């Protein structure tokens, strides 16, 4: 007896499949990434916390059973984790064997000096839960998500002083971001033209240490809070740069900038604050600099047409909902206008990779 024909031939279904698989595939995948963003991030975070990518960098290729055994989790959870990482393009599956993709091997493997594992920890342990309050922050125009961290002060940076472990995670993330980006700054700018650089909000000293190591005659100073300055001084001493590099505690809005500097750097800093505060900082920088001195803004930039890039769309809700309730990733033209209004006679820009850029203002 011939088998019964159950499936029907449907030109409509064939056409729909063609559209989904060929014409709209990228849009549909983006839809899944947006709808499942919370799941996909937790998949990435779990893999990083379990050190899946470091394991595969050292011992790949491994079977599912091999991954299960090495990570000390059962095979079914290992299968779910590997499925997620493979679908996201972080892990490659060849037959029954798993290995890292090139991106994962470079960025998620802890054996690599410039891995972004600390950045993922920052997102997971500090940013994730507060961003649930994004809609409330939009309505209130303030950092409603800060309520996740009890304490004094109206910004995340002040509150973290009461959470030493979270502050450590935060500073490691900032160091990781700096390690990914500050070599771009060093390659794009000849800091040999200056004698003393002030890094406002310079964090744990990663920027000034790299600058001082590249330019042996350059002096550099971190200007940040007392608790962060202590971390910077320890790192400066460890790098053997005491005497030429230092950290000064202060409030950049209330306290005067240290004297004797001829270059003031705002690296990944003006995204934190409102337009009014950024304008005030640029005016203050103009007044503190000698003739011929320079101010630099270095960070990821929003395009002037305000349509992107994704990095600007990803970062801006964090500054509104959690960090300060004031900032966002601003456009090139906004920074340029603010510098000119502050008095800087010559303003130029340099576009870099990964949506980063430098805007330079020279005092006449």
pLDDT averaged over residues = 93
Tally of separate helices: 16
Structural class of the helices, strands and pairings?
alpha/beta
Give the uncertain stretches in residue-range form: none
Task: Please provide a written account of the structure.
This protein has about 375 residues and is an alpha/beta fold. The protein has 2 domains: about 15-105, Arc Repressor Mutant, subunit A (Orthogonal Bundle), CATH 1.10.10.10; about 175-360, Vaccinia Virus protein VP39 (Rossmann fold), CATH 3.40.50.150. Helices cover about 50% and strands about 15% of the residues. It has 16 helices and 9 strands. The chain has helices spanning about 10-25, 25-35, 35-50, 50-60, 65-70, 75-85, 100-105, 115-125, 135-140, 155-160, 165-190, 205-215, 225-240, 275-290, 310-325, 330-340; strands at about 90-95, 95-100, 195-200, 220-225, 245-250, 265, 295-300, 345-350, 355-360. It has a 7-stranded mixed β-sheet, sandwiched between helices. A hairpin with a 4-residue loop joins strand 8 (about 345-350) and strand 9. The radius of gyration is 24 Å and the shape is globular. The N and C termini lie far apart (about 95 Å).
How is the topology of this model organized?
Layout: H1 11-23, H2 25-35, H3 37-49, H4 52-59, H5 64-71, H6 75-87, E1 91-94, E2 97-100, H7 102-107, H8 117-127, H9 134-140, H10 156-159, H11 164-188, E3 196-200, H12 206-214, E4 219-224, H13 226-238, E5 245-249, E6 263-267, H14 275-288, E7 294-300, H15 310-323, H16 332-342, E8 346-351, E9 356-362
Parallel strand pairs: 3-4, 3-6, 4-5, 6-7
Antiparallel strand pairs: 1-2, 7-9, 8-9
